[in-house]
Amino acid sequence: MKVLAYFYFSFYDKNLKRKVDAVLKRNGIHYEPTVRIGKNEHIGITITRITYELKIDYEPLFIERLVNDLRFVVDPDLDFGFRFDFSEKEYEQSPLYELIAIGTNQRLYLENKGESYQTIRFCDTCGKQTIEQTKPLLINTAIVDKRNIVFVDQELVISQKMAELFDSWGLTGYRLEHVHHYGSAKNKKTAYQIVPTNILPPQNLPDSYLNDPVVNKLKCPTCRTGGHLFYPHHYNKTVLEKIQDFNFAHEYRARGPYEVRRVLLISSNVRNRLIENGLANDEWEYRPVIIT
Ligand SMILES: [Zn+2]
Asked: Can you give the residue range of the structural domain that contains 7?
């Protein structure tokens, strides 16, 4: 896996361009920003917009220096992310995948209509909370029946047909919870929430990642969650004995400033079966795990 640090920022001040270019040059980066000249019709002046889109090999200490050097132009914490280039082998042979998205159709992402969560304090330092569901999800189940698989507030919900398929495939590591119907009773269908029951052992992240000064600055010093810079999950081979088809990572991950949750990881078996049966298309996005 190759990790790239991705910076994106733009501005209108030509003097800033000189300063940014000097910083980049000093750091051995040769880059020409995109310069677009446009006319603002309302006030009749010409505007020059200068855009930088940098993809830089990730080396934690180098990135820290660059972030500090560029701090005068933008808040790099907000404009800096990771991009992961997995080899085809890493991608195809991963035993587990984080399910990032199941397509671009908005109807695949529903909101629970019931007020049925309770919060539990996760960390006294940063105040983040875990959110526990206390009642069945409440959604329009007709949509689930039509789409087969949807996300409801990050929870995977499936139709009756999918539940039967999952059962016939002998999938493991989950239980089904009935979902309640929201909307006209005549449209009501059977739908289930997938509740993963298998929690994986702790990850084995490389020390260079654990000690990254920029990433750590965004984290709470106590619970070590926070920020937007996440690595793919790293495990050693012993995880292979613990994998089921639906799994939660052991660690909690921040979701925004107030919440933490465990990440769902599906097995390659689930991914392959869904693809083979035409139930997951090219719009599904997965992130493999790294086995060391
Ligand atoms: Zn905390």
From this structure: 2-85
Domain count, the chain: 2
Q: Which of 2, 3, 1 minimizes the C-alpha distance to 215?
A: 3
Q: What is Dmax (Cα atoms) for the chain?
A: 68
Mean pLDDT of the chain: 93
Whether residue 26 is found in the same domain as residue 109: no
- List, as ranges, residues with CB under 5 A of the ion ligand 1: 123, 125-126, 220, 222-223
Q: Ligand 1 mean position to 110 CA, how many Å?
A: 29
| Cα–ligand 1 centroid distance for 72 (angstroms) | 29
Residues 39 and 73 in one domain: yes
Centre of ligand 1 from the C-alpha of residue 229, in Å: 16
Alpha helices in 27-159 (DSSP H): 60-69, 88-93, 141-147
Dihedral of the CA atoms 164, 93, 90, 150 (nearest 10)?
0
Tell me the per-residue pLDDT of 136-190, one tens digit each, with 9 for 90 and over.
999 999 999 999 999 998 899 999 999 999 999 999 999 999 999 999 999 999 9
The answer on 221 and 243 residing in a single domain is yes
Same-domain status, 115 and 74: no
Single residue among 67, 85, 103 that ends a domain in this structure: 85
Query: Sign of the CA dihedral 196, 106, 233, 96?
Result: positive
Distance of CA 115 to the CA centre of its chain: 25
